[in-house]
Amino acid sequence: SEECVLFNEEYMTCMWGSRETLTANYSLYYWYENRSPVEECKHYLQDQGVSIGCYFNRSEIIQFQPFRVLINASLGSRTLKILSKPMELQDLVKPEAPVNLTIRNMSSNQLQLTWTSPYPKAQCLEHAVKYKSNKDTNWTHQVKGDIFSLPSVDYEKYYTFYVRSKINSYCGSTQLWSEWSVPVVWGSNSTSKGTAEEQLHWFWIHTVLIPIASCLLLLVLVVLLVRMERVWVILMPRIPNPSKNFDELFITHNGNFQEWAGVPKDVVESFRPNYSENICYVSELPPKDSCEPLWESGNHPPSVMPGAPAAPREHSPYKNSYVGV
Amino acid sequence: LSHVMATTFFRSIFRVLPLLLLLSPVNSSSCAMGNRTTQIREKYENILSHDIDELVNMSAEYRDRCCKNKKHENSKVFFCNDTQEIESLQSMACNMLRFFHKQKISKDYRWKAALVSCGTLQVLQCKCERHKKDKVCMQVNTHNKDTEKSEQSKKKCNQEFCELKENISSLRSCWNKFEKIIFR
């Protein structure tokens, strides 16, 4: 969409894009409703061969008449027509920034700021002033008539003032402020010089002294840290390494866990699959007086286990078992 | 003979008089004569311009989708003619007064528009050709609308609203032109 601005009512530009966004051929036609015939723009504004706007001189501008533009965008065989809404050119005026800003000392610490405007109709302007002192961080804004007064000033500070203008609601309906004027300062020479020196002083402190001091301090802390092992150990504790405890297992006993753990040999053997255990019969020796005739009857050698040898045979879980040790 | 001549003389005058009245310009200004631009400017800047701003702000609050791309038949009243700004303002203000009784338009809006019309006529010290329009101004100036219950709901967009809105916009522009061109 197009954007038309009347610069100080001396000339007008209607822009519809920039070189980066435009690819087609553009042409502009304009007219004032119920007043003039359609005319083509006589002075196109170009950027690297592409038309991006139209320039209107003063004789082509009529305020208080509905103004319309038609933009033709043609790319190859296709043409796109963009018709604007009716515009009132008096609502598109952007005045020039005020000039000749002057400060006067009034009585009782009061400053008065005056200016003049290149715009011809002073009764149609409203103005805005922004100012701050060298000790302030934010600007103070005020919308004013033709004269601005600062009621009380500090002589130890210096102030900077800017002014800009806009068409007021008596003459139009716009939000287009002018650019800020060239600033004017107020404050004694010595304070301004002193401030410059002070600023240089602060610059050296901030950019040179403080970084160097910080680095030195850091270095000292690091050296102390390394030297004091008690502190070092707390900050960087030794990570326990249990591998040394297992040197014997892996080196001496070759990974034989049972050997290293001291497991008894028969327990080790009992876990073998082809293990067969000798049955060890245990019997109680009968007392002497009750069991003598038995021994005399035969040539049976006195066995340690005179119990019932057949019984084990019957009850033996092993086929190849034998009596005796 | 002298008696007949006198009678004839007076009769001819009496015939001419209606002719003179007939031939007098139809659009004779019903505004007060005299160069009062300073007073007009003061009243416009200090009082009327604020009412116009409020009325324009009110226009923006109402739905206007039905107003786009519509041409109005009675378009002559919307022009602020060069060197005839006062007459154009008078014409616009008088035209705006006919919306005062349009029930399809919100009452607050109608009332404010009538206030601005009557204010315009008062500042310019003009009257409307149809006297019943002046009665509207008497009503607006004396009657306190605030005592009445204001409307809760806003009315739907309609063509009468669109016409009034355009009339307000033209009146505002014509005042802007007046201030810019007349006052140097």
TrEMBL record, chain A:
Location of this chain's protein in the cell: Membrane
Membrane topology category: Single-pass type I membrane protein
Domain Fibronectin type-III: 97-194
Leader sequence residues: none
Family matches, as CDD domains: FN3
Gene3D superfamilies: Immunoglobulins
Primary localization: membrane
Gene Ontology MF term list: cytokine receptor activity
Keywords of the record: Glycoprotein, Membrane, Receptor, Signal, Transmembrane, Transmembrane helix
PROSITE patterns in the record: FN3 (PS50853), HEMATOPO_REC_S_F1 (PS01355)
GO CC, one annotated term: external side of plasma membrane
Disordered, as annotated region: 302-325
Record's keyword annotation contains Ligase: no
PANTHER family per UniProt: CYTOKINE RECEPTOR (PTHR23037), INTERLEUKIN 2 RECEPTOR SUBUNIT GAMMA (PTHR23037:SF47)
Family the UniProt entry places it in: Belongs to the type I cytokine receptor family. Type 5 subfamily.
Protein's recorded name: Fibronectin type-III domain-containing protein
Organism: Otus sunia
UniProtKB/TrEMBL annotation, chain B:
Signal peptide (residue range): 1-28
Entries under InterPro entries matching the protein: IL-7, IL7_sf
Species for this entry: Otus sunia (Oriental scops-owl)
UniProt name for this protein: Interleukin-7
UniProt xrefs under Pfam families: IL7 (PF01415)
Location of the protein in the cell: Secreted
Gene Ontology biological-process entries: immune response
Family stated for the protein in its record: Belongs to the IL-7/IL-9 family.
Keyword annotations of the record: Cytokine, Disulfide bond, Glycoprotein, Growth factor, Secreted, Signal
Molecular function GO labels: cytokine activity; growth factor activity; interleukin-7 receptor binding
GO cellular component: extracellular space
